[in-house]
Amino acid sequence: MSRATLGWIVLSWVGFALLPWYGFDRSASPTLSDYFVSGSALIHSLRGVWWLLPILVPLGMALVPAIRPSIQQKGTWLVASGLLGLALIVAQGFSIGLNGWTFEILRGLFGEPGPSQAGMGYGAALTAAAFLIILCHGLAARGWCRGDAFVTSSIGAVVALILVFVFFPVSTILASAFADNSGNFAPSEFVAKFMDKSIWGLDCLTSDLRCGVAWNTLFLGLLVAFGTTALGLAFALIATRTDFRYKKLLRVMSVLPIITPPFVIGLALILLFGRSGALSNILWEWFGVPRSRWIYGLPGVFIAQLLAFTPIAFLVLIGVVQGISPTLEEASQTLRAKSWTTFWTVTLPLMRPGLANAFLLGFVESLADFGNPLVLAGNYEVLSTKIFFAVVGAQQDQGRAAVLSIILLAFTLGAFWLQHAWLGKKVYTTVTGKGDSGIPLPLPRRVALASYFTAIPWAIFTVAVYAIIVVGAFVRSMGRDYTPTFEHFITAFRVERADWGLYFSGSAWNSFFATVKVAALSAPLTAAIGLLTAYLLTRQRFSGQRAFEFGTLLSFAIPGTVVGVSYILAFNVPPIEITGTGFILVMCFVFRNMPVGVRSGIATLSQIDKSLDEASLTLGARSSTTMRRVVLPLLRPAIVASLVYSFVRAMTAVSAVIFLVTAEYNMATTYIVGRVEAGEFGLAIAYSTALILVMLLAIVAIQLMVGERRLGRRSASAPSPIAVQAIP
Amino acid sequence: MELKKTFAAATMLAGAMTALSFMSAGAAQAQGALVMYCAVQEEWCRAMTTAFERETGIKVSMTRKSSGEIYAQVKAESQNPRADIWWGGTGDPHMQAAEEGLTEAYKSPKMSELQDWAVRQWDQSKQRTVGIYSGALGFGYNTDQAKANNIGEPKCWADLLKAELKDEVQVADPNSSGTAYTLLATIIQIMGEDKGFEYLKALHKNVNQYTKSGAAPAKATALGETTVGITFLHDMVTMVVDKAPVKVVAPCEGTGYEIGSMSIIKGAKNLDSAKKFYDWALTADAQKLGAEAKSYQVPSNKNTPIPPQSPKLSDVKLINFDFAKYGSSDERKRLLSKWDNEVKNLPK
Q: Under an 8 A CB cutoff, do B176 and A394 touch?
């Protein structure tokens, strides 16, 4: 038996016999003895918490193969122990709650109210995790995944996490789609709500009436996905394949929108293009273009989302464009293809995984976006805001929100399926171990021109939008009173000198610290889980893989509001009672943003030749070692992308966290939303600029920490014949 | 190599820290604590929190959200309530929560000091929610825009139907905003249901946008994005105090109003502190804080001085608003779907 397996068996006992099994009451202040031994499941079960006693059986079963090394079916013992252990923990956790039995049947059988228990704590978490890993090790011992315990454990861990933090909460809320307002099962309500004319109506085709909200959302999503992919590609090509002088600047600028808190872009657009906006005024005074409200509606949301989501396409595509091996392009040119033909028939098809992923992300992001439609959509309704107001608006109809969420979910999953169909079974490997692969070709003239013509005006436009934002932070009231002032920053970020040190008296500090802390903690977790999942999906074959991939995408597809409410419904009561903690915020972010890590990981990994891993495995490295020393270094662009994305997302997400914030863990965005609601645009914008600065610093830090991926590509200007290894 | 190790180590460290630093979080709820959900503006919430802490020594954990969000959260948390008191925000969600038994009945010794409308709401909700302030519905118009486009001063609800205001009126969507629902209920109570819907259909031609948030038209009016915005008067007053070119109008036909309310959450963990806060929040001293925090609603305690910026109640003709009827969820659903079918989908 391997040392790792033994270690996990020991941990399962530690969790049961040493650590506190239950979480602590918020008002209690636990002593050291509460942490060790006396709060453990062992002591509890001896003192009358009888339902914890059976867990000793699987704990003992795991010991059997450890004590009797001669035994034949070690794997079977481990599998049985793990399964039984998990089943017991889940069963007791869900059937005994805060107020006794949780199921009617049990109440009927054993009388009311029955025993009660609090939510699970460290001990329960550790023991459950250990049982899971023991189960996976057992499966590996029985020959699953070629007997690789690292792979089975990784799959097990990711599946378990997704089950707990995605499927469990989401199923609690989606169930309400099939219930009437008092909670009874009513499928006819579902049909009635689902077929509603306001969702599927097609009146806009034949008359000047409005179309259903589902069509609106779909149309906007497709437009935005096309737009962001095209713009992202233009930026990526300029950044990697041309010697454009202001590349660096272009890169920073293209990343700016992603680090902009919600509402800000929308506000800036109103201040520029609104009826009383700065540009509208100029157009009116100089050219007599009448002022209008065209910005409110589809055009406004489209522009704002293009601004906001192009960087995501860019981040995904830049890794892919970099990764394309010039060998194939050189081969094409040697065969006398013109540079345009080469681009069209070789380069572009090789970018397919990147293009498809960028498109998918753009589409899904547009569907899930909440801040921009809220400010700019006018009478153009989309699902995300409709869902939000179904929950919090005057209707207060959770069932309707669930129905709309199901539609949104169906769109996202449909896009996911289409992407798979388009990519097909073709091979996109271009990063191999075969040393130098030549100089990347310069872009064909028309492609270069097209890229410049799309990217540069867009970049200028971005600058204009951000100029408005910066100005807005330093004037009294943007759009009305342009007296320069620091008052917004002072209100938000005042620091006073008290006798005992610095006192952060500004009204924003509290939420600022909480946000930075939550973002900094969730980013590495997101990247790790996301990339691990991507690795499992591209490099391993196991049954149920497609369902697994589906599951990872689910949390991304569900609108934030629904996730927020579902987290409260699921995690406010035992067995997992974590509402009101920062932990729930971190978990929410990790599982909402993980899909980006997964997607960019998949896009990058599908370019890297499997023979590299195989070489490592052949040389005797375990798959964990291969992962660490071969795959991870090649994944650097994906690591950067997912770290940056998840950090930034944790700082800028709105709709999911509105329900999860508490007095101690108030997030910057909810503070900003409050300010926008109160009409204090100046303060909102000032706070946002501070956040933008923090995020910029974080991105630079992440870049420095992870480093660039060095591939064995020569650059035309500085040939370096020595750099033949793909691995630094 | 070093980099990779750093990355792996950082990941693990972050994982461990996440678990450790948060699991025990929230220990601030010591003896004499109060968890408050606050639905008015941030300053006012803060002022209330600090004043109450100073007065009683009870530590308040305050979270600010909109009224609808708090309702949704209180409902989701009903199995294991986190909050003790829900202070502020428009009355409908409070009434809804009372109807569903999410809040606790309580009779404060301060009830005798309250205005009639506050006591009436308390009666109607079976003592589960009480009025702390009220604000009349009305509209404001941008004086610069009106002058530029030669639009006469609108004084009444009927004036908003004039052809010169085509595409110049902004109001929220009643499906998402309590403010706009108040407008819907007000018009019906002034004109009767059939005439009221005729009015709303005619108004639809002049509406340039149904916003999501109830207060958004006030900002749009201040910025000149629309000439007229229909909101609660105090939202418009805030813009005027901020020196925007806005004139506030209390319509001549009379108008409805909202009652900002306060409820104790059922199953509150700090029930005593909640009651203490409840009693304190009804005093004139506590209610004075609103105007100091630039919120110009009319307080519910008769002895509270009415802020000078507030629209004078003597100038506003208030209708006898039937909160019980128009606050009930059945009536609301019926009116909203009628509005959706008959008004919102009309061509311009």
A: yes
How many angstroms separate the CA atoms of B300 and B306, rounded? 10
CB pair distance less than 8 Å for A296 and B10? no
Q: Check if B15 contacts A (Cβ < 8 Å).
A: yes
Residue B170 lies in a domain: yes
> For residue A525, what is the nearest residue in chain B, using CA coordinates?
B11
Instruction: Map out the domains of chain A with their CATH numbers.
Output: 3-142 (no CATH), 199-479 (1.10.3720.10), 490-685 (1.10.3720.10)
For residue B68, give the nearest of A293, A374, A393 by CB distance.
Answer: A393
How many angstroms separate the CA atoms of A650 and A635, rounded? 22
Is residue B7 assigned to a domain? Answer: no
For the segment B212-224, the average pLDDT, to the nearest whole number, is: 85
Stretch 211-240 of chain B: residues touching chain A, C-beta under 8 Å: 212-213, 215, 218-219, 222-226, 238-239
Residue of B nearest to A673 (CA): B65
pLDDT tens digits along A306-341: 888 888 788 778 877 877 777 778 888 888 888 788
Whether residues B334 and B192 share a domain: the answer is: yes
**Mutation to test the A interface, candidates B3, B17, B18, most A Cβ within 10 Å:** B18
Are residue B270 and residue B230 in the same domain, yes or no? no
pLDDT at B187: 94
Query: B338 and B192, same structural domain?
Result: yes
CA distance B112 to chain A (A): 31
Q: Is B199 in the same domain as B109?
A: no
Q: Which residues contact A575 (CB under 8 A, 6 or more apart)?
A: A90, A93, A94, A119, A120, A124
In terms of domains, do B126 and B151 share one? no
Of A394, A521, A658, which has the smallest distance from its Cβ to B69's Cβ? A658
pLDDT digits (tens, 9 = 90+) for B45-72: 989 998 999 889 898 988 888 888 888 8
> How far apart (Å, rounded) are the C-alpha atoms in residues A190 and A194?
6
Query: How confident is the model at residue A221, as a pLDDT?
Result: 92
Across the interface, do A580 and B336 touch by the CB < 8 Å criterion? no
User: How far does the CA of residue B41 sit from the closest CA of chain A (Å)?
Assistant: 7
Q: Express as a percent the part of chain A with pLDDT over 90.
A: 9
B177-212 tens-digit pLDDT? 888 999 999 999 999 999 999 999 999 999 988 887
Is residue B236 a part of any domain in this protein? yes
The CA distance from B174 to A19, in Å, is 53
- Same domain for B209 and B332: yes
Total of domains in chain B: 2
- How many A×B Cβ pairs under 8 Å? 218
Q: Return the pLDDT at B305.
A: 86
Q: How far is CA A32 from the centre of its chain?
A: 37
Mark yes or no for CB contact B68/A209 under 8 Å. Answer: no
pLDDT in tens, A588-643: 999 888 877 887 788 788 878 888 888 888 888 887 788 788 888 888 888 888 88
Query: Which has the closest alpha carbon to A645: A343, A359, A258, A266?
Result: A258
Answer whether B140's CB lies under 8 Å from B231's CB: yes
Q: What is the ipTM score, two decimals? A: 0.79
The pLDDT tens digits for B292-327 are 888 888 888 988 888 887 777 677 888 888 888 888
Q: pLDDT at residue B30 above 70?
A: no
Calpha distance A350→B347 (Å, rounded): 48
From chain B residues 50-79, the ones with a CB under 8 A of any chain A CB are 61-66, 68-69, 71-73, 75-77, 79
Name the pTM for this structure: 0.80
- Is B209 in Cβ contact with A296 (below 8 Å)? yes
- Domain that includes residue B150, residue range: 136-256+328-344
Q: Are residues B290 and B151 both part of a single domain?
A: no
Separation of alpha carbons A462 and A102, rounded Å: 54
Listed residue (B101, B105, B133, B110) closest to B258, CA to CA = B133
pLDDT band with cut points at 50, 70 and 90 for residue A29: low
Same domain, B64 and B99: yes
User: Alpha carbon of A631 to those of A473, A607, B17, B93, B287: distances in Å?
Assistant: 44, 12, 26, 54, 63
Name which of B65, B173, B332 is nearest A658 (Cβ-Cβ): B65
Q: Is residue B123 part of a domain?
A: yes
Q: What is the CATH number of the domain that holds B153?
A: 3.40.190.10
| A74 has a pLDDT exceeding 90 | no
